[in-house]
C-alpha cells in the first residue's frame, strides 16, 4: 500500500452482511427479515445505506440469507446498484465476507465490511476508520468503541504499547479480559490483497462450527500484516440490533439525533425527549413542536405551524404555514391549509382543509367505508362545529358552517357559506341563520 494523498484515492468496495433472521426478536414467520425492521419510518438497512452513500464506493455487495427474496425485492427498489449474493447455508461472518468478495474477483483496493443492522452508524465514523486505515498503511483496521460494560461483545486486547494485539470473544475471555471496556464493533476495513488469502484459509474448527471473520485478522497478523484499531467517539452509533431492547435503543439514539438536526435549523421543539420525528420529515424554521408529539415519515410542516402536545401526524401529512394541530389530534394523508386549526380531540383522515378553516373539538372525518378510503374537503374559512361527523366523500364549501354534533352525509355536503345542523344535517334557512347567528358552529369549536 502507498501512503499520503494518493492512498486516499484507492478504490473502495463495501460488503454489507444482511443474511440474519434475528432469532432473538421472536415473532415467528410474520416478522420481516431483521434488516427490514422499521426504525423511525425506514428499514434498519436504509439507515446503513444512507451512512454509506457519501463514501462513494466503487462496488457494493449485500449478502442476503433469511427471506432473501424479500430483502432482494427491497434492494431492487431502494439500492438497485448493489450486487446481491445469497449466503446458503449461513455459515458465519467469515463465510459471508468470503462469498461477497468472490463476487468481486478483480477488485483491488480497500474493502469495508459492515452489518445491515447498525442503523445508528455515522458516516463520520466510517470516514475515520478509512482515513486511519490508509494513513497508517494497515492491512486491516478494526473500528472499536468504549463503554463501561461491553457485556457479550468481543474485547479488544492491546499490548503494552497500546497497539492492537487481538480480539477475544466474551465467552472465551479471562476475568481480566472481561474487565476491558473497549469492544469490537464488527466493522472492519481490509486491503483486498491481504483479505483474500486470509478468507481462503478460514476453517469451522470452533464451538459454533462457523467461519469467523475475526480469524481472518489473526491470519493477516500471522503473515506480518499490520492490524490497527481505531476508536469511535460515539460507541452508541456502533451497536447492532439483536433483540427488541436493541431496537428501542437505536430508535432512542436516532430520534434524538433527528430532533437535534431540526432544532439546529430553527425548529422549536419544546421537549425533544418526548418527541418522535421520523425520517424524511421537512419542518420549516419557526415551526413549533410541543411535547408528546409523533410526526411520521415524509410529513411537511410550514413556517409558524404548531403541532401538539399529544398530536400525531401520520406519513405524508402537510401543514401549510401557520396551521395548528393541537391536543390529541391525529392527521393522516391530509393537507391542512395556511392558518387552519384543529385544536382538540379530532381525526382528519384523507382530508383537504382550506386556509383559515376552523375544525372544532371531537370532529371525525369518516373516511373508510369498509372497502375504500374517501376524501373530505373542507373549504377555506369553513367552521366545523364540535362533534361533527363528516362522512366521506364529502365537501364543505368555502365559509360553510356545521352545528355541534352534525352528521354530514356524502350526498349532502355543505354549500358555500351555508350553515347546517342536525342528524343527518340540514341546511338552516337564511331566516334561522340570521336569528341564531353563528352559535351552532361556534359552540366549543376552539
Describe the protein in words.
The structure is a single chain. With 446 residues, this protein is α/β, with parallel strands linked by helices. The protein has 2 domains: 4-238, Spore Coat Polysaccharide Biosynthesis Protein SpsA, Chain A; 266-442, Hexapeptide repeat proteins (UDP N-Acetylglucosamine Acyltransferase, domain 1), CATH 2.160.10. The chain contains 11 helices and 36 strands. The strands form 7 sheets. Strands 12-15-18-21-24-27-30-33-35-36 form a 10-stranded mixed beta sheet. Strand 4, helix 3 and strand 5 form a beta-alpha-beta unit. Helix 4 packs across helix 8 and helix 7 packs across helix 8 (213-222). The chain is elongated. It starts with a helix and ends with a helix. Mean pLDDT is 92; it is low at 1-7 and 438-445.
Amino acid at each position: 500500500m502507498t501512503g499520503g494523498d494518493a492512498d486516499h484515492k484507492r478504490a473502495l468496495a463495501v460488503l454489507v452482511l444482511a443474511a440474519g433472521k434475528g432469532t432473538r426478536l421472536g415473532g415467528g414467520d410474520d416478522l420481516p427479515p431483521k434488516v427490514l425492521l422499521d426504525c423511525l419510518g425506514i428499514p434498519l438497512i436504509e439507515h446503513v445505506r444512507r451512512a454509506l452513500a457519501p463514501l462513494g464506493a466503487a462496488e457494493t455487495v449485500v449478502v442476503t440469507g433469511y427471506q432473501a427474496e424479500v430483502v432482494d425485492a427491497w434492494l431492487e427498489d431502494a439500492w438497485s446498484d448493489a450486487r446481491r449474493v445469497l449466503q446458503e447455508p449461513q455459515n458465519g461472518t467469515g463465510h459471508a465476507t468470503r462469498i461477497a468478495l468472490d463476487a468481486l474477483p478483480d477488485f483491488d483496493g480497500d474493502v469495508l465490511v459492515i452489518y445491515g443492522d447498525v442503523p445508528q452508524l455515522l458516516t463520520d465514523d466510517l470516514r475515520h476508520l478509512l482515513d486511519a486505515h490508509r494513513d497508517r498503511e494497515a492491512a486491516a483496521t478494526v473500528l472499536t468503541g468504549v463503554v463501561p460494560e461491553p457485556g457479550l461483545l468481543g474485547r479488544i486486547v492491546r499490548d503494552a504499547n497500546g497497539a492492537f494485539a487481538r480480539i477475544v470473544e466474551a465467552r472465551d475471555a479471562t476475568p481480566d479480559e472481561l474487565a476491558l471496556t473497549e469492544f469490537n464493533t464488527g466493522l472492519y476495513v481490509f486491503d483486498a490483497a491481504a483479505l483474500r488469502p486470509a478468507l481462503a484459509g478460514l476453517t469451522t474448527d470452533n464451538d459454533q462450527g462457523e467461519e469467523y471473520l475475526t480469524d481472518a485478522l489473526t491470519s493477516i497478523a500471522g503473515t506480518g500484516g499490520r492490524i490497527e484499531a481505531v476508536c469511535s467517539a460515539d460507541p452508541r452509533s456502533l451497536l447492532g440490533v439483536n433483540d427488541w431492547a436493541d431496537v428501542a435503543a437505536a430508535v432512542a439514539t436516532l430520534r434524538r439525533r433527528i430532533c437535534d438536526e431540526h432544532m439546529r435549523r430553527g425548529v422549536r421543539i419544546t421537549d425533544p425527549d418526548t418527541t418522535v420525528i421520523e425520517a424524511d420529515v421537512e419542518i420549516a424554521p419557526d415551526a413549533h413542536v410541543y411535547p408528546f408529539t409523533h410526526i411520521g415519515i415524509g410529513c411537511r410542516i410550514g413556517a409558524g405551524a404548531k403541532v401538539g402536545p399529544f398530536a400525531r401526524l401520520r406519513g405524508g401529512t402537510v401543514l401549510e404555514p401557520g396551521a395548528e394541530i393541537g391536543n390529541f389530534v391525529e392527521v393522516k394523508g391530509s393537507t391542512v391549509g395556511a392558518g387552519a386549526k384543529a385544536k382538540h380531540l379530532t381525526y382528519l383522515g384523507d382530508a383537504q382543509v382550506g386556509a383559515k378553516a376552523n375544525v372544532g373539538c371531537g370532529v371525525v372525518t369518516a373516511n373508510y367505508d369498509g372497502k375504500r378510503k374517501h376524501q373530505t374537503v373542507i373549504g377555506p374559512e369553513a367552521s366545523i362545529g364540535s362533534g361533527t361527523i363528516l362522512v366521506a366523500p364529502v365537501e364543505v364549501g368555502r365559509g360553510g358552517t356545521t352545528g355541534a354534533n352534525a352528521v354530514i352525509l356524502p350526498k349532502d355536503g355543505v354549500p358555500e357559506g351555508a350553515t347546517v345542523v342536525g342528524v343527518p344535517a340540514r341546511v338552516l334557512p337564511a331566516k334561522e341563520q340570521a336569528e341564531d347567528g353563528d352559535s351552532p358552529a361556534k359552540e366549543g369549536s376552539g
